[in-house]
Amino acid sequence: MRGRLGRECVYVPSCRFGLFVALRHWCPPGGRVLMSPVNDDVIFFVVLAAGLRPVQAPLNPLDASIDVDAVPDELWGSLSAVLTTNLYGNPDDAPRLRARCDALRIPLLEDGAHAIGSEVGGRPVGSWGDASVFSLSKHVGAKAGGFLSCADPGLREALEKTCEDLLLPGRLTAELAYTVRPYAEAAVRGLRLRRAAWATMRMLGLMEREEIRMPLRAEDLGRAVGAAPDLTASDSWVRVDLHDYRLRSGGLRLGRIGRKLDHLDEVLAACRAGTEQLLSTRWARPGPGRAGEVGEASGAGVGGAGGSGARPVAQPLFRVPLFVADRDASIAALARRGIVVGYLYDPPLDDYAGAGFTDLSPDPDGARWFARHALPVDPLRARQVIDVLEESGARPAEAPGGLEPTRG
């Protein structure tokens, strides 16, 4: 990762843990952090756990990137930091955000969990911020591990010490469970027992999400926010879907992560090919128009290179958001072929959490449209997804009001 980004990197057990460390290091207690409302709720809770106030940004509806021009001047002046999302691997406009943060003398933090392999402004995502965090659960498929990078190499030692102070001791049972998990999952897939497994987990109370968003539990969350900055007080929200997020990694885990990481470039190449296929379909942009032109609608649009002036590259690489008129019907059609659609972030965080826990977006319509219509699909299954959508007669979503679907 040091070679990819050109900056120092610290291994962390998860992206969310690395983000907590970054927020605590770069942001003053009680500070205000501009972030995307179309984001994993876990990230929202990490910001709260760090003792900070989330501020929801207006988004470009075609790619869910922060709409830099739509953020009011008075809002810029109130911020302590900006946190990008790079949703599904599609980059936020980091060059312009970097310039804004420099002018305001506040840090830019990049969440690159979805964006290993993505570029913006001719540089890798994660090389623009004062700090950036990455997940090895996504493209690498290790289901554990991550990196925290920093622009100032002199901070590495301090960040490592902070990590050490916050990490919990590893457990042999957790290491063994991590080791056997891939074999158990393969058995469930091979025996076509997914539905039975989910039903059993639900019966035992082990399902932490019945809906896209986890239960907010406002009264309990209020107490956790009052105790912040404190990762332990917010643990029941931050740990969802990844209970080992702050455990020290043992040799078994590190060995498997390392072997997976060795194949990253092969995975990215395969993702790139699938992304190109998906971006050539009529669902790659809303409403009528030529396929593949969504990326021209903004500086960092789907498939674009973030305003670098270079020829657009195929991104996002983690999931490609297609735009369909009836997303539930498309999800059901894909499920019948064994293709599960995940990484949905609907409703946006300000609608989910309310003004009690976050500043609401000054212009929420873009986020709401994207959250309602985007169908994020795995580029590694591009051909199958295209076949299902064709056979099911899925229609592209209509462009949001006032937005032209194409340019030129």
UniProtKB/TrEMBL annotation:
Q: Does the record carry Transferase as a key word?
A: yes
Molecular functions (GO terms):
transaminase activity
Region: Disordered, residue numbers: 283-307
Q: Which UniProt keywords apply?
A: Aminotransferase, Pyridoxal phosphate, Transferase
Domain of life according to the entry = Bacteria
- Quote the biased-composition stretches of kind Gly residues, using this chain's numbering: 298-307
| Family of this protein | Belongs to the DegT/DnrJ/EryC1 family.
Annotated protein name in UniProt: DegT/DnrJ/EryC1/StrS family aminotransferase
The source organism is Streptomyces galilaeus
